[in-house]
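chain below, 52 aa
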Amino acid sequence: MTVASLKEKVTLYALMSLVLWFFAIPVIAYCFLDCKPFIPKKVASVLLFFFR
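prediction:
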């Protein structure tokens, strides 16, 4: 196994954080914009709107 350079590590962590934020944005939007009880139909509509 080779030792990854600093540039490779930064690139890897940047890509991982982008992927995590891509999935976190709809959850955060749902929590802040619609603080009613958990309704799966509303969560699905938020996710469908975000992923179009």
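The chain has two helices and no strands. Residues 3 and 34 are 46 Å apart (CA to CA).
thats it, cya
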